[in-house]
Amino acid sequence: MELYNQSTKMEYLDTLASPDVQTLLRSVFEKSKNTEILYDKDLHSFSLGQIEEVIRNINPATLNSVSNTKSRINTYLIWAINNGRRENNINPLAGTTKEWERKFIDNVSQRYLSETDMFDLTEMLLNAQDQALIQCIFEGISGQAMSELISMNYHRINWNDNEVTVKDVKTNNFRTVKVSNRCIKFIENAYRQQVFTAEDTENEKQLAEFEGSVFKNTVWKNTRNHKVSRGNLAKRLYIIKDKYEMDSLTVNTISESGRIKMAADLYRERGKLGKQEFTEIGDRFNINKMTVNGYSYYDTAKMKNYIDSENLKEMYNLDVEF
Known about the structure:
The chain is mainly alpha-helical and 322 residues long. It has 14 helices and 7 strands.
């Protein structure tokens, strides 16, 4: 997607060293475009009220995401002021408080998380174990009863090509999933993590090594099984959900959020979301198939309950008609 005043924004993006940060800022610019067209001026020249419109259009899922969105816009404003791109040297975001940020959070819990929301969530977690847990689910690794996560083993990962081989207890078969650089970094850090800091109490517990497993159980006085269980992983997810007041954060909603993200990527690449695209999403996320008269297929109608025009527009600013 071409950005409003693209040459200026690309000049700014080129000053950012991290590709991840460039992607996050570009996402902000993509979502600010319609408001910039409406007011016929660049984001760097916006008033506070106009910036508020942009943040509402971005629709951050958590207070932390609001803070990060504000920070990203703020860095662009500072760059524009320092480089003479803004008409005056007044930064409208200067002096805004946490109370100002709170007004952008809907009292109704947001069910799905965009790629930016997921980035912000994983960045604030205390443990690589939890970062890897959430990012892996978002990128398609879970399995029945989290069995793919439990089976993840250091020795079945191609670290050079980001390929992770996991096993689902439902089929008892292995499959290989190619993950992002960000995900593989979390996985490696999770494997190397030795001490787990509880998100709720910040108490530290030793992590048990178990035959090369990436996800590990914590060691307590009464710990009998060093192998991590579904219950261990589910409890960690529940604590994150409770601490950060994300009522809709579950394995299913994280996975469905990832499917929406993949649909957005495929639509940007191909300009369509048809049977082939939904099949690729189903394959990656290991979704259960329906079988009728010996023919197996993914229930695309069910997938379209969340991969729909509204979510693609709200989360990724894409106009998609089904």
